[in-house]
Amino acid sequence: MTRRVEHLGSALVKGLSWTSRDAVRVTHDGVVGDRHWSPVTPELRCIKATDFPGMVGLPASAADLPTEGDALFGGEPQTVSYYSQQVSAITYGGVLADRISEAAGQRLYLAQVPGPGSFLWSSPISVLLRSELDRLPDDVGRYRANVVVDDRADPLSLAPGAQLSLGDVLLEVERELERCVIINHDPVTGERDASLLGHLRSGVLLGYGCRVVEPGRVRVGDVVERRSPRAQR
């Protein structure tokens, strides 16, 4: 049976609502527009999903993003703490930052990585296999994967080094993805509605982080093929 791309998605702002896409453009840095923004504290620390899991229910569109007039520090890049990394980013106030602050109950701003790069802790692209959701809710938005592959009729077996061809893009699996409490929250309301970590593979693993071998476009419905790492396209 043919395996196909079932869903595509990204988030304009790290940690906020996940947006389904009909098609995406992929560069070596990941999906264009995916998580180039992150909420930050006044101390310029990126907040974690565990700080405010309910923010997965906060919608954000391109029209909501800050404008040049909302820039802080004269629009000059500042050093932002992103977990153990130090990232150069421009910080903004504005309506969306105010809305996130109100929902979180604390003052927050928005930081943007200028130019290529984004607030991605792991690999540039995340892939989820439908065949792995047998004992889990099938509302795939809660898992926040860039690519969801429908392989239920012919389950894939992936490990680091495996390659996937989809659309114009060739991906290579780098690692299995460790999950956090964010998957316990409804992706629309942000409310906690499940306790799923105990149902994942040992190490709370679900899905795969991939590097981009060949960039291009991917569309929902594209055929997905597993390739040998040495295969030439």
From TrEMBL:
Gene3D superfamilies given in the database record: PK beta-barrel domain-like (2.40.33.20)
In what residue span(s) does the MOSC domain sit?
A: 50-227
SUPFAM superfamilies, per the entry:
PK beta-barrel domain-like (SSF50800)
Which PROSITE patterns does this chain map to?
Answer: MOSC
**What InterPro entries does its record include?**
MoCF_Sase_C, Pyrv_Knase-like_insert_dom_sf
Q: Record's superkingdom?
A: Bacteria
Any one Gene Ontology MF annotation carried by this entry is: catalytic activity
What is this protein identified as? MOSC domain-containing protein
Q: Which organism is it from?
A: Kocuria soli
The major lineage groups are: Bacteria, Bacillati, Actinomycetota, Actinomycetes, Micrococcales
